[in-house]
Amino acid sequence: MTTLQAAPRPEAPAPLRDEGRIGPRATARHTGALVRRNLLRIRQNPESMIDALLMPIVLTLLFVYVFGGVIGRGGSRAQYTAFLVPGLMVILGMTIAMAVGTGVNDDFRTGVMDRFRTMPIARSSILVAKVVVETGRMLVAITVLLIVAALLGFDFSGRWPGIAAAIGLTTLFGTSLIWIFMLLGLTLRTAQAIQGLSVIVLTPLQFASSIFVSPTTMPDWLAAFTRINPLTHMADAARGLALGEGPVAGPVLWTVVWSVGLTALTAPLAVAKFRRKTTN
């Protein structure tokens, strides 16, 4: 008489290999492979580039033609465009970074990370690959912004070195924001929670800064906050580098300090949080 045997239970995905056993060269190779994988996903799903391609156009046209006549009162629309474009670089960096948080959260919810858990790859390579790809999307968005600005009359003659420096500094600052939103994506439970918290925090920071208007037009109490706002430092630095107007050294120094400080604080926390989530 034969006895029925219980079907074996499916094994849980194995945790990622201990990163301490993976050397820097292997980690770099894993990162490169994951960057390629993410780029292929973008190629297969071009809709994921909509924010990087359309957001610069929408924001520029909205503020220049809808609000430019009022906000830029006392100057021409071309002058306000020149004032606005460096600030919009900061906005695009935040927009791209915000999408990273929801993307990481969705990867856990849809089971993508379960596949990575079965692969002998370094944990940090998964997050670093996302940072690299999203930084590339950020550069695409800034490129579209500059093309639109040129069509609206922005004068690039003799400004290319400063504009290149502004792009580099904006990318550095935007990368630090990516780590912040990645940590949020690993900490909060839903994409809606990430988006809600991001809007609540970032909206006051955006408008209480020098991105859209000069702080000299604000009440004293608001101008005091604006002067310590990291977005003001970034916008002033980009504006000084790209236009050659206003102070440059101070805003650039503060932007580098904010970028390095935020990355040093949030990147290790994000990697540690990711390790815990992928080993449980």
Automatic annotation (TrEMBL):
**This protein's UniProt keywords:** Antibiotic resistance, Cell membrane, Membrane, Transmembrane, Transmembrane helix, Transport
The UniProt entry, under InterPro entries, shows: ABC2_TM, ABC2_TM_bact-type, ABC_2_transport, Nod_factor_ABC_transporter
Its topology with respect to the membrane?
Multi-pass membrane protein
Protein name, entry field: Transport permease protein
Give the family from UniProt.
Belongs to the ABC-2 integral membrane protein family.
Q: Which domain of life is it from?
A: Bacteria
**Region listing for Disordered, in residue ranges:** 1-23
Q: Give me the segments passing through the membrane.
A: 50-71, 83-105, 126-154, 160-186, 193-213, 252-272
Nucleus among keywords: no
Q: What residue stretches are annotated with the ABC transmembrane type-2 domain?
A: 47-277
Q: Where in the cell is it found?
A: Cell membrane; Membrane
User: Chief subcellular site?
Assistant: membrane
UniProt cross-references to Pfam families, sorted A to Z: ABC2_membrane
Taxonomic source organism:
Streptomyces endophytica
